[in-house]
Amino acid sequence: MMAFHGVIFSGVWLPRGGHAALTDPAKAKTAKPTGTGGPVADRFTTRDGTVLYYKDWGSGPAVVFSHGYPLSSDAWEDQMLFLLQNGYRVIAHDRRGFGRSSQPASGYDYDTFADDLAELVDRLDLRAATFVGHSMGGGEVARYIARHGQGRVAKVAFVASVTPFLLKNDTNPGGAPLSVFDGFRAAVQADRSQWNLDVTMPYYSFNRPGAKISEGLRQNYWRQGEATGILAAYLALGAFSETDFRGDLRTITVPTLIVHGDDDQIVPLEISGTLTKKLIPQARLLVYPGGSHGLLHTDKDRLNADLLAFLHS
Known about the structure:
- This protein has helices at 77-85, 110-123, 136-148, 178-198, 200-203, 215-227, 230-242, 246-249, 273-279, 295-298, 300-312, and strands spanning 40-45, 51-57, 62-66, 89-93, 129-134, 153-159, 256-261, 284-288.
- The protein is of the alpha/beta class.
């Protein structure tokens, strides 16, 4: 049995004791899809009127990235640049309420997140794309496939994903009690700015003896977290902690890669990556010794190489 006091899930920690848009939002409905080769950022309006920001770079085989909590598409910058340089088209959006996307009063649930992603994928007419989800974004990818099928999906990669299910109940005895996530919501209301800074230490395993701390990386996380609206920050906690993705994962039949660090203090390997592998028999699980939850940055060279090898396979 795990002790959950002081344990962190999906970028959220409970201790023991901008950039201007390149497209005018008013013109977002008429903006046309890109993917013409050069780096492009744009916005589009979903069916319910939410304006979503996205990046679409390159013209090769498509790779679609879904970011974690409480970040934005900027979290994927190292992977997007690397894969762009290796001939891939890379696409990432800011989830509703996060980053540069608008902050509606509703829609902070995984069905809506998945439908938003589907609108972007359909809008850009992506085919045979590889979908990569980190942390909270892993659940978004799983729910997208469950709701919209694999018709546009060639491969899937889960990186330090919240799948299959974080909340403790009779069918998931290893999960975290609801009281833990209630505490997280209280922390968001109390002083989320300080929390966004404090969480970077365990998030990147900077709290380990001898760790080389990057203050720039900590500030970059804080910058992204502060750009997320407080309503999204509050409600998304319930979304990623209380959504059961076990059924979603069973629908995945395409080649799948699971990457997780064995020092993930946010979403521990044994309740996430290991169990996700059991629900997707064809998946390959790569465990990074000493790997943090923030693998996108702390282990970026290895992750980039593993993603490229997966894309080539």
